């Protein structure tokens, strides 16, 4: 069988002429492909830009650092350390970071750096092979004004435009009016606010202090010798008379830690985009099926004219390929635009929870190739059986409609049986998996099984409803509804998937919000929480103790550490301690038996530790397990600094507590244990109970201790901020769910246009028998809305199942959060009502348009 390019070309020209006369068919196919690719590329571009930002993150206006220097007691660095490194010829950059507030009480993060040093270090694509050389700074950077400590901050031009559009006056931070300097997007500031270090120290009230120092080693001879690089820094500090043991030297990890932390977040977004992609493909497949069905007579005529079947099949495949290419190009462009809209939402979430900075996004042609390849494969795989079936049409069939090879009810039963088998298999496998990636894969199988149940469910529902209908027109209306199940099934499957996703996400978000509020009520017990500059903690603590209206002061210590157990390498954790009252009364325990006197006695003696639920789930740690922590060294290990972690004492995990929102696992030790080891002695934060007006205490701290309002948080303020932050965490998935529902509604709209166009002849016969146009419209609308109603009824239990799996499997394994599942019936009712109204509009408009035409012409066309 040789393919004839001329015959294939002629077939394509004929198909093109057909689409010119029936543009709705081509539009339906392209619409599905465009919507599918748009959502797929939009989320992919957003995720890829975020992941690239982790690995390519640079110091603002500079290149990526090799090492970071900070104080081991978590206090700020003296700027003398920076001057010592610069005098030693080490390329370094001083950085200061802090939170300030505006008159409206909003908090802003400000970064300050040595602007001259930053712009003098040349950006290179490979920091290990090129030396830093001086380059001319951007003309948009007003160096002279910045170096004179004038109140000005630099931001990307797009961000400045947005702020100017919303602002009613100049930006005032810590009572200082600021000038916003717009710089080019390619400088990579993103959403960051950057000032010269001299002004930033004044704004943050941290004179002669630094948050950290970035070190840049670019000599080829030192490229891979990490120890040599560290020794250079240590020798420079020792020669300047500074104690290098008080300074931590952390190596740049190429964004690996952030990538590990945010992996589950991005995976959830990918899952949502794939769901939207599948919904779009349903729409496209529905369009292809309808187009092929309407062209059966044309195919037979082409075969009768001598065109071989394999040439016709090749032309049909090439037609789908061309439509996919066109749809993918449009979808790719729209997806990039969607990404520009989604990225600010992702940036807020990643910055607030994970501390990640997103750089300006770039697009890549590889994304189009991936989207095109996936769409083309899925489209051909879905359409291939239908194409083969149509290519085998008997020539003797003439123009008659092709008979169904398999009775509809039998096909519906086969689909339902396959769905039940998939659901049963996933129910068994869910009990065996502990990895969220596998659980998400199983969730995908459940998502595939759910729409397969729909045709059989609607068919059974209508069968049960028929005997209840009175004889006459309404009995006919319900009975004939069975005839439109098959042509509407794909569109309704898309609606079902979108509804299930909305219901499950509403369940997750609503349950999480209630759980979070309950946890915050238990966790927050003080009236005011204070997190000042670590250097100022002793003075503020002394002032608070002298205040007579303060009834209690609570303290918290925090540092980074590494945990080790027998089967694991070092695990980064936050080592935490609080006063014993706070630990006892504000820790919400997941594990039982935490109220006995022996439990707390062992804890205070340093025999046991408490760990957070996310740490427990991620690394399979349980009560009774033995662990070691590098910062808690024995007396012998403290004497010999070279001792490794194997010489540290062993602790028993005695309790697991709930912890929401902390991306790093926590280990809590008793305050007495903290004081026995070489850990930061000053607490990182304070909390107080106050008998009086809490605002008066805040004003006293501002006026007498020089604190900024951004460093103080009331109990209610923390609750509001936490709820707001976690709402934003799920906001992008809620947006994607809404987009998916909108896509499914558009698909139903196109399906209704095609279906009403195909049913004009039966409607015309009823019209000829005396049924009015109004009755016809009510009848057809009722039929379609009945199918939509059955779809919504199936979506409620199926959405609840997806919500249960999201809460108790995927979210628990991915984030380590136990969430009590709650039923939000009003939210479910709103989703169903929105779906019904959307579908009513999608059904009514094409029906009205089609039935306005002279119905008698449809009978005439049918007779031709």
From TrEMBL:
<feature type="transmembrane region" description="Helical">
    <location>
        <begin position="827"/>
        <end position="849"/>
    </location>
</feature>
<keyword id="KW-1133">Transmembrane helix</keyword>
<keyword id="KW-0812">Transmembrane</keyword>
<feature type="transmembrane region" description="Helical">
    <location>
        <begin position="786"/>
        <end position="807"/>
    </location>
</feature>
<comment type="similarity">
    <text>Belongs to the ABC-4 integral membrane protein family. LolC/E subfamily.</text>
</comment>
<feature type="domain" description="ABC3 transporter permease C-terminal">
    <location>
        <begin position="272"/>
        <end position="394"/>
    </location>
</feature>
<feature type="transmembrane region" description="Helical">
    <location>
        <begin position="440"/>
        <end position="462"/>
    </location>
</feature>
<dbReference type="Pfam" id="PF02687">
    <property type="entry name" value="FtsX"/>
</dbReference>
<feature type="transmembrane region" description="Helical">
    <location>
        <begin position="312"/>
        <end position="336"/>
    </location>
</feature>
<feature type="transmembrane region" description="Helical">
    <location>
        <begin position="734"/>
        <end position="755"/>
    </location>
</feature>
<feature type="transmembrane region" description="Helical">
    <location>
        <begin position="483"/>
        <end position="505"/>
    </location>
</feature>
<keyword id="KW-1003">Cell membrane</keyword>
<feature type="transmembrane region" description="Helical">
    <location>
        <begin position="367"/>
        <end position="387"/>
    </location>
</feature>
<dbReference type="InterPro" id="IPR003838">
    <property type="entry name" value="ABC3_permease_C"/>
</dbReference>
<feature type="transmembrane region" description="Helical">
    <location>
        <begin position="20"/>
        <end position="43"/>
    </location>
</feature>
<dbReference type="InterPro" id="IPR051447">
    <property type="entry name" value="Lipoprotein-release_system"/>
</dbReference>
<keyword id="KW-0472">Membrane</keyword>
<feature type="transmembrane region" description="Helical">
    <location>
        <begin position="416"/>
        <end position="434"/>
    </location>
</feature>
<feature type="domain" description="ABC3 transporter permease C-terminal">
    <location>
        <begin position="737"/>
        <end position="852"/>
    </location>
</feature>
<protein>
    <submittedName>
        <fullName>ABC transporter permease</fullName>
    </submittedName>
</protein>
<feature type="transmembrane region" description="Helical">
    <location>
        <begin position="271"/>
        <end position="292"/>
    </location>
</feature>
């Amino acid at each position: 069988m040789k393919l004839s390019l001329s015959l294939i070309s002629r077939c394509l020209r004929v198909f093109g002429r057909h689409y010119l006369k029936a543009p709705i068919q081509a539009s339906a196919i392209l619409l599905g492909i465009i919507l599918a690719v748009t959502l797929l590329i939009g989320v992919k571009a957003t995720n890829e830009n975020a992941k690239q930002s982790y690995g390519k993150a640079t110091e603002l206006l500079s290149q990526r650092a090799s090492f970071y220097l900070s104080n081991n007691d978590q206090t700020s660095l003296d700027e003398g350390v920076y001057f010592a490194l610069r005098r030693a010829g080490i390329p370094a950059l001083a950085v200061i970071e802090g939170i300030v507030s505006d008159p409206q009480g909003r908090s802003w993060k400000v970064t300050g750096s040595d602007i001259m040093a930053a712009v003098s270090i040349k950006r290179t694509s490979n920091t290990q092979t090129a030396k830093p050389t001086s380059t001319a700074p951007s003309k948009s950077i007003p160096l002279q004004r910045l170096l004179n400590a004038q109140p000005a901050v630099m931001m990307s031009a797009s961000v400045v435009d947005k702020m100017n559009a919303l602002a009613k006056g100049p930006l005032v931070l810590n009572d200082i009016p600021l000038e916003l300097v717009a710089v080019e997007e390619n400088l990579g500031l993103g959403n960051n606010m950057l000032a010269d270090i001299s002004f930033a120290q004044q704004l943050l009230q941290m004179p002669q202090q630094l948050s950290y120092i970035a070190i840049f080693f670019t000599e080829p001879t030192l490229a891979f010798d990490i120890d040599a690089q560290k020794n250079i820094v240590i020798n420079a500090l020792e020669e300047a008379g500074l104690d290098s043991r008080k300074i931590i030297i952390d190596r740049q990890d190429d964004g690996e830690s952030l990538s590990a932390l945010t992996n589950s977040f991005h995976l959830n977004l990918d899952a949502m985009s794939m769901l939207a992609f599948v919904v779009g493909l349903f729409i496209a497949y529905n369009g292809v099926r309808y187009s092929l069905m309407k062209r059966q007579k044309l195919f037979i005529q082409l075969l009768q004219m001598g065109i071989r079947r394999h040439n016709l099949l090749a032309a049909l495949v090439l037609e789908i390929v061309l439509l996919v290419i066109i749809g993918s190009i449009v979808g790719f462009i729209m997806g990039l635009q969607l990404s520009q809209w989604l990225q600010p939402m992702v940036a807020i979430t990643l910055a607030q929870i994970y501390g990640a900075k997103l750089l300006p996004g770039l697009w890549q042609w590889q994304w189009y190739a991936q989207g095109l390849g996936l769409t083309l494969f899925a489209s051909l795989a879905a359409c291939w059986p239908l194409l083969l079936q149509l290519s085998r049409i008997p020539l003797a069939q003439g123009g008659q409609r092709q008979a169904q090879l398999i009775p509809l009810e039998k096909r519906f039963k086969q689909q339902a049986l396959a769905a039940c088998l998939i659901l049963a298999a996933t129910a068994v496998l869910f009990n065996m998996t502990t990895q969220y990636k596998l659980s998400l894969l199983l969730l995908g199988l459940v998502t595939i099984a759910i729409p397969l149940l729909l045709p059989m469910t609607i068919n059974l529902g209508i069968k049960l409803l028929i005997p209840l209908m009175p004889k006459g027109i309404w009995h006919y209306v319900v009975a004939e509804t069975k005839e439109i199940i098959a042509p509407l099934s794909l569109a309704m499957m898309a609606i079902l998937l979108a509804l299930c996703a909305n219901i499950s996400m509403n369940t997750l978000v609503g349950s999480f919000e209630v759980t979070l509020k309950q946890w915050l009520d238990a966790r927050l017990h003080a009236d005011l929480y204070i997190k000042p500059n670590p250097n100022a903690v002793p003075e503020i603590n002394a002032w608070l103790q002298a205040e007579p209206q303060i009834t209690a002061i609570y303290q918290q210590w925090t540092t980074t550490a590494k945990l080790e157990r027998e089967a694991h390498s070092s695990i980064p954790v936050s080592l935490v301690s609080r006063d014993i009252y706070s630990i006892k009364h504000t820790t919400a325990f997941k594990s039982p038996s935490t109220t006995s006197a022996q439990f707390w006695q062992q804890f205070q003696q340093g025999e046991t530790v408490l760990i957070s639920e996310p740490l427990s789930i991620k690394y399979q740690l349980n009560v009774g397990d033995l662990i070691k922590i590098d910062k808690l060294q024995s007396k012998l290990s403290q004497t010999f600094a070279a001792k490794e972690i194997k010489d540290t004492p062993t602790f028993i995990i005695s309790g697991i507590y709930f912890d929401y929102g902390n991306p790093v696992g926590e280990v809590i030790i008793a305050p007495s244990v903290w004081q026995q080891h070489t850990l930061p002695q000053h607490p990182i934060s304070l909390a107080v109970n106050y008998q009086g007006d809490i605002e008066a205490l805040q004003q006293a701290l501002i006026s007498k201790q020089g604190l900024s309002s951004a460093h103080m948080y009331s109990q209610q303020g923390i609750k509001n901020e936490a709820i707001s932050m976690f709402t934003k965490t799920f906001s992008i998935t809620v947006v994607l769910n809404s987009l998916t529902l909108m896509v499914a509604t558009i698909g139903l709209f196109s399906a209704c246009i095609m279906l009403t166009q195909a049913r004009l002849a039966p409607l015309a016969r009823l019209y000829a028998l005396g049924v009015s146009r109004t009755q016809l419209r009510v009848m057809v609308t009722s039929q379609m809305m009945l199918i939509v109603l059955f779809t919504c009824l199936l979506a409620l239990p199926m959405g609840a199942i997806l919500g249960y799996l999201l809460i108790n499997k995927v979210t628990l394994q991915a984030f380590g959060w136990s969430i009590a599942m709650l039923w939000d019936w009003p939210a479910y009712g709103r989703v169903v009502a929105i779906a019904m109204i959307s579908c009513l509009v999608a059904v009514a408009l094409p029906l009205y348009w089609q039935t306005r035409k002279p119905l008698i012409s449809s009978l005439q066309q049918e007779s031709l």
